[in-house]
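User: Please predict the structure of the protein below. I'd like the answer in structure-token form so I can feed it into my own downstream comparison script.

Assistant: Understood. Taking the following sequence of 246 residues as input:
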Amino acid sequence: MIVIDKLSVQYSDGKQVLHQVSCRVNDGESVGIIGANGAGKSTLLKSFVGLLMPSQGRIEIHGVEVNQKNVRKIREMVGVVFQNPDDQLFMSNVYDDIAFGPRNYGMTEEWVKQRIYHMFHAFGIEHLEKSHSNKLSGGEKRIVAIATALVMEPSILLFDEPTSFLDPRMRRRLIELLKELEMTKIIATHDLDMALELCDRVIILKEGSIYAEGQAKDILTNETLLLEAGLELPYCLQKCMDIGKV
């Protein structure tokens, strides 16, 4: 379980981004974090892994509090896939990018090799092993970035705008891949159609605070609530309404 208790986060310039956020995420849940630009979605994700520390309140993951002392242990449990894959792909080839995390944690080279080839097979990217990461397509970069997080066998995976940079075919492939992942998933996104398809529960952030939370189908079909939070109905529901008017 993840427990967020009265969490406030302030940037170094003094700007308060999150205000008294409290919620829980249960093991195995898929939770969407939605909200307009600047609502605090990315800040909340960064707080889970100690990239930003609370100015007040706390986050506890599997009984371990997120603080400077526990950062290493937290990052063994929690994998992150950033909005821009280039932020986590910086080695000379795909193999070394995926190997970076476990090597940094002192895993044996044999363990690293076995895990990487398992990732290659699982994602169907064996052909990219020796490719330069900066030469990959946006979709390929996204898949490799997910592999860099999964190779550490985390129990929780965080995604920041996972469908950005993807064409429709790669977006569909990613969604189907995320459906197959059985660990706890927390997905910050503007893609409300994806959230409706993937998430059990949704939390709306507005101006750094929780504005609403509930079952995905209840939140994402409530047009009035979404509009109040600066959002719109998922596109698939808008289309259904338009067809009904014909």
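That's the full token string. The first strand starts at residue 2 and ends at 10.
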